[in-house]
Amino acid sequence: MEESRASVMNMKFLIPTQDDIAKGLTTDKYFIWTEKVLKAKNVNPRVVMEVTTSEWGIFAGLEDVLNLLEGLPVDVYAMPEGSLFFPHEPVLTVVGNYLDFARFETAILGFLCHASGIAKQSFKFKLACGDKKIYSFGTRRAHPAISAMIERSALIGGVDGVSNFIAEKYLGVESIGTMPHALIISFGDQISAWKAFDEVVDERVPRTLLIDTYFDEKTEAILAAENLSRIDAVRLDTPSSRRGNFRKIIEEVKWELKIRGKDKVRIFLSGGIRLEDVIKLRDIADAFGVGTAISAAKPIDFAMDIVEKDGKFCAKRGKKSGMKQVYRDWNKLEDEIRLFSDEKPEGKEPMLKKFMENGKILIKTDFRSARELALKQMEIIRKLGREEEFLASE
Predict the structure, then answer these.
(1) Among 84, 175, 349, 355, which one is least packed by beta carbons within 10 Å?
(2) Chain centroid to CA 16: how far?
(3) Domain 129-295: which topology?
(4) Residue 368 pLDDT greater than 60, yes or no
């Protein structure tokens, strides 16, 4: 214990390593006691464990779960990442001898709960904004160790871009950004900073000018319009405490830009943007940079429970026993749950696919196809006129 503690004290950042997670060290202590008791009494049932929750969401985090369980003698069935799931549906099922994966329950749930919560919130923002753009701007509100996970989950949920530079290394997507107040303050005035940005930064990057550093947004919009030839967008990073009537502020900015020949300039809003802000301002703004509301989204409250033991139905109270399959009617976006062994209903697609067999990954998952699936479901929701159902619910 002392030697282990000493090695921790030598770490630069207090972050469990990938090896720590793979060895099951990031587990709840009662799983350690459970292992000890079961091994001592030679008890190791073959079980079916299902992951379920009492809310709807967008499924994410499966890639990490598969990588965690790879090589263990277990089978894994799951909904593809990006799938819309409904209350009490199994989104992931693990089949195997309990002691082969017992201590990994904490990590499995952690991967799924956090990623799916971010994906769900991103999905809601994208659903709310209609044909406007939503960007993930919130990794500064979270531990940097999970920044790539946050951006991946946000992309699965449907955001149009992410701001953290690490996404380029781990996800292979180009990150996006405008300019911070620090750039303008470093130059001492807005015009010098805007012009320097235009001179230095690659021409492919949109010229989105921050217009609320020293003066009100209207005044800085006029300064921008009268001193720069190229303006693709203006960003209002106005915090809620300083907004007043935000719609009126935006209308004034648009007016002053228009009468100066800049009517094509897009309006980009950030600064504590909430879902209700998007709904209220989507008709007058073109894009939203969403921070804490996405990166600190409430995790999905998944639970992982045994539903079969040694081939027999069993479950704790409040849970339904038996290995199950979820069948979807894609036209109505409605699901039906049946026992896995039951006959498949006509015209419905089974949602749980076999992703792993005896520790071997059968199907690779990637965020691009997951994002496509999420957006496909979003279009069905819009077609069915069910937007309010999903925007109003937790």
Answers:
(1) 349
(2) 22
(3) TIM Barrel (3.20.20)
(4) yes
The structure tokens listed for 102 are: 């017992």
- Cβ pair 308, 321 in contact under 8 A: yes
Q: Taking CA 302 as the corner, what is the angle to CA 308 and CA 367, rounded to the nearest 5 degrees? A: 105
Q: Are 87 and 55 in contact (CB under 8 A)?
A: yes
Q: By the 8 A CB rule, do 365 and 60 touch?
A: no
> Residues of CATH 3.20.20.70 domain(s) within the chain?
129-295
How far apart are the C-alpha atoms of 70 and 58, rounded to whole Å?
A: 23
CATH 3.20.20.60 fits 2-117+303-392, yes or no: no
In this structure, the number of other CB atoms found within 10 A of the CB of residue 342 comes to 12
Q: Where in the chain is the domain with CATH 3.20.140.10?
A: 2-117+303-392
Task: Summarize pLDDT for 213-264 with one digit per residue, the tens.
Answer: 999 999 999 999 999 999 999 999 976 766 678 999 999 999 999 999 999 9
Q: Tell me what pLDDT residue 244 has.
A: 76
What is the distance, to the nearest Å, from the Cα of residue 229 to the centroid of all Cα atoms in its chain?
37
Tell the burial category of 148 from Cβ atoms under 10 Å away from its Cβ (0-12, 13-18, 19+). Answer: middle
- Indicate the DSSP class of residue 194: H
The residue whose two tokens read 């799938």 is 83
Residue 393: pLDDT over 80 = no
In DSSP terms, 289 is beta-bridged to 135
* Pairwise CA distance, residues 76 & 354, whole Å: 6
CA distances from 93 to 28, 80, 343 (A): 20, 12, 19
Residue appearing with tokens 């990150």: 175
